[in-house]
Amino acid sequence: MIFTEIKKRDYLLTVLLSMALFVITFAIVFKQSQMPATDYYLHMDNAAHFKELVPYHITYPMWHFLVYAVYKAGWYLLGNMPLEYACAIVTSLINVSIFLIIKKIISSYECLLPALIAFALCLVTPIYIPWYNESLYVDQWSPVTWHNPTNFMVKPFALIAFCLVILILEKIKKKENIARKEYVFLTITVLLSVLAKPSFFQGFVPALGIYILIVLIYTRFRDFKKYVLLCLCFLPGLIIVILQFYFAFYTGKGGGVGIGWMEAMSQSHNPLIAVLLVLLFPLTYIILNINKCKINTPIQVSGLFTIVSWLEYALLFENGVRKYHSNFSWALQLSYTVLWVVTTALFFKDLKEMDMHNQKAFAKNTVLLIIWLAHLACGIYYAWSLITVEGMWM
């Protein structure tokens, strides 16, 4: 009976928070879709001409297709529905799906109030220091990105693909059988992530390759075949990514890809401080729990994902007019999301299991909770500003 009541409360809280997140996202997106030169305005215009622009000018078409489909359905079924509504509805539903996926991940760690934690993870941002980082988002970047529709679009697939990879890696370590359908599901998820946006593939695949190579060397190439099968799941996505890379960087306005240390970061105050502002909680958690984290597979993989993505952003840039558009930062921001979800899940599991009489654990977790709440407070402030401040979209 008590278990049933808990499930009901969790269900009601999940529905209420889903509606709240939908409304917040709708308000932000609807506002930005009416502002010329914003990402939503430009992508929305491409969605309106979807059939003419795909595949050469829209290389990752999933968000555009969904907006186009909702727009056409709304036009025929509900009258003359403006495109801005289709844009806001689709993006809001995507963000709710992100919330539900994160809740599922948090629940797997048996944390208390998983819906509330997942909702918070849809808001957290870098720590805001007004006299240092004039913009809370720009140059720091964030695990939560409000201004770009395709980053929203890829995030559900990135989270699912990450969890599937961790599941397979853990099964390989434990000598458990891996069903063929698990490989197939991962292959499909990765393929969909590429059609949503290639950023996850761009950062995660090299990181996973490094992880697998380290494990193979350490284990003297034990279970080599299983790791090869895991790598093959990314092959169909790789073919599409190569085509996307060519059309995005070497046709139209693309000027190719340049290499230069921190070239695209040259306008930021200090790239290392920017990382600290956005990852203060995850880094502090890992440092204070180093013995546990260094043998934790999700931490290992998400940490490598973050390091590789940061190095890509530090080294690569677009030649030409889009040099400072920071388009190589998207993989990094997805890695921030994954690292935040993993460390938050571990932290709230620690809180649930904490002995209140253990002063050392109590002090450590109190510090971590304050830092986590500071990130959340900044995220709430940022979302509110995006809704209420005229002309603000980043």
Keywords:
two-stranded antiparallel sheet, single chain, 2% strand, 71% helix, 17 helices, 394 residues, mainly alpha
Please give a structural write-up.
71% of the residues lie in helices and 2% in strands. The mean pLDDT is 92. By secondary structure, the chain is mainly α. Strands 1-2 form a two-stranded antiparallel sheet. The radius of gyration is 21 Å and the shape is globular. The chain has helices at residues 2-33, 39-48, 50-53, 62-78, 83-108, 114-121, 149-173, 180-196, 199-218, 224-232, 235-250, 271-278, 280-288, 290-293, 297-315, 330-353, 359-388; strands spanning 257-259, 316-318. The termini are far apart.
Give the number of DSSP strands: 2
β-strand percent reads under 5%
Judging from the principal axes of the Cα atoms, what is the shape? globular
Strand order of the largest sheet: 1-2
| Poorly predicted residue ranges | none
Q: Roughly how much helix do the residues carry, as a percent range? A: over 70%
Structural class: mainly alpha
Oligomer: single chain
Cα gyration radius (Å): 21 Å
Helix and strand pattern: HHHHHHHHHHHEHHHHEHH
First and last CA, distance: 47 Å
Report on the biggest sheet: 2 strands, antiparallel
SS element count, helices? 17
Mean pLDDT: 92
